[in-house]
Design brief:
about 400 residues, alpha+beta, Cytochrome p450, 16 helices, about 50% helix
Length: about 400
């Protein structure tokens, strides 16, 4: 089929509801070439899951090829600050660098670290919801969904409270480059944010080298590989901190907003959750991530010619793994377009799979359970005040705002 007939990521209508188009793509086949971005779209759950684990594909190709050898154009020199920041982060590295850095970062990002953060996360969520309730509601995105994960990551990194308003604008500007075919204005904002964020973290790291604290930056400075003595370089530390903020809060913000929007459109499910929040909340969080995942598309480079679904995917091409479609695949989920907060069999791929599975998944779940739990408890009559609008972005998909009334 001609994928451009249904896959229209630049359309506001498509962004608002891409799921009917995904159903058409799944019905038409396992892989479709999308000419506007020269990508192969993969819409089925089994295929997306398998390709995430296939080492013939990679988030990067620079560990094996130059741009010229891979048939790609070298990025503009003006974009270099963004690429330096982005390309040293776990998300865009491949082994052996990915293996080394993930092992080192994991030492400072253990389940015990997350467990130790739990009281802080709950305290921050409670304070935000108390203020939100006292104000009678407002924009759930700006007042609850955004501040919580930013505050948590800032606490982890040891960023002073006075500096925290800088983080969200930097993150939003950088994440603009993850959309399909970003324009030069988007690139310029990302470059500026990359330079400013890098310089800020460079000074913060220098201070922690002199005066270590009980925070993640100090732990990253101290982390080393026992056998080899490897440590993170300064650029790797900077890129890791930025990735923790960007990945750690963009997904949580949009899961919170998208999730509440889904609940408000499914009043019977919301009523069931309000009636038994402690019992239902763990599966509800997983279902909300499946039902309207914040990350709709994840890209991988084809590192060698492969045959897939009867189609040769040549080296140098790119696949676009459609997470949103995979999470609504009827071949894997019963009644996939139905929100079922008690769904037990729920192998959604919102956190990815394989070596790039989200390192912060336990923290994201903790934050989501804390914020949803507080709102369910303290704002039982929360209701919609105005129909929300979607942001223009498709890859990272979320609401501009969600205005609600709390009585």
């Amino acid at each position: 089929m001609d994928a451009t007939a249904v896959f229209r990521p630049g359309s506001a209508d498509f962004v608002a509801d891409p799921y009917p188009a995904y159903a058409e793509l799944r019905a038409a086949g396992r892989v479709h070439y999308y000419a506007p971005t020269a990508q192969w779209l993969v819409p089925h759950h089994a295929d997306v899951s398998a390709l995430l684990r296939d080492r013939r594909l990679g988030r990067s190709y620079r560990h094996r090829f130059t741009h010229e050898e891979f048939g790609r154009t070298t990025p503009p020199a003006a974009h270099e600050p963004f690429h330096t920041l982005n390309d040293h982060g776990l998300l865009d590295l491949e082994p052996p660098d990915h293996t080394r850095i993930r092992r080192l970062v994991s030492q400072a990002f253990t389940p015990r670290t997350v467990e130790r953060l739990a009281p802080t996360v709950r305290r921050l969520a409670a304070r935000l919801v108390d203020d939100f309730r006292a104000a009678g509601g407002g924009d759930l995105v700006a007042e609850v969904a955004e501040p919580l994960p930013v505050a948590v990551i800032a606490e982890m990194l040891g960023i002073p409270e006075a500096d925290r308003p800088l983080l969200r604008p930097w993150s939003a500007a950088i994440c603009g480059m993850y959309e399909l075919a970003p324009d030069e204005e988007t690139a310029a904002r990302a470059v500026k944010a990359s330079l400013e964020f890098t310089e800020y973290l460079r000074e913060l790291i220098a201070g922690r080298r002199k005066n270590p604290g009980d925070d993640l930056i100090s732990a990253l400075i101290a982390a080393y590989e026992d056998e080899s003595g490897d440590r993170l370089s300064e650029q790797e530390m900077i890129s890791t901190c930025v990735l923790l903020l960007n990945a750690g809060h963009e997904a949580t913000v949009n899961t919170t907003a998208n999730g509440w929007w889904a609940l408000l459109r499914n009043p019977a499910q919301l009523a069931a959750l309000r009636a038994a929040p402690d019992a239902l909340l763990p599966t509800a969080i997983e279902e909300l991530m499946r039902y309207d995942t914040p990350l709709q598309l994840f890209e991988r480079w084809v590192l060698e010619d492969i045959e897939f679904a009867g189609q040769i995917l040549p080296r140098g091409s790119e696949v676009a793994l459609l997470f949103g479609s995979a999470n609504r695949d009827p071949a894997r989920f019963a009644d996939p377009d139905t929100l079922d907060l008690a769904r037990a069999d729920n192998p959604h791929i919102s956190f990815g799979a394989g070596i790039h599975y989200c390192l912060g998944a336990p923290l994201a779940r903790l934050e989501l359970q804390a914020s949803f739990g507080e709102l369910l408890k303290k704002a039982p009559l929360l209701r919609l005040a105005a129909e929300p609008e979607w942001q223009a972005g498709f890859v990272i998909r979320g609401l501009k705002e969600l205005h609600v009334v709390v009585e």
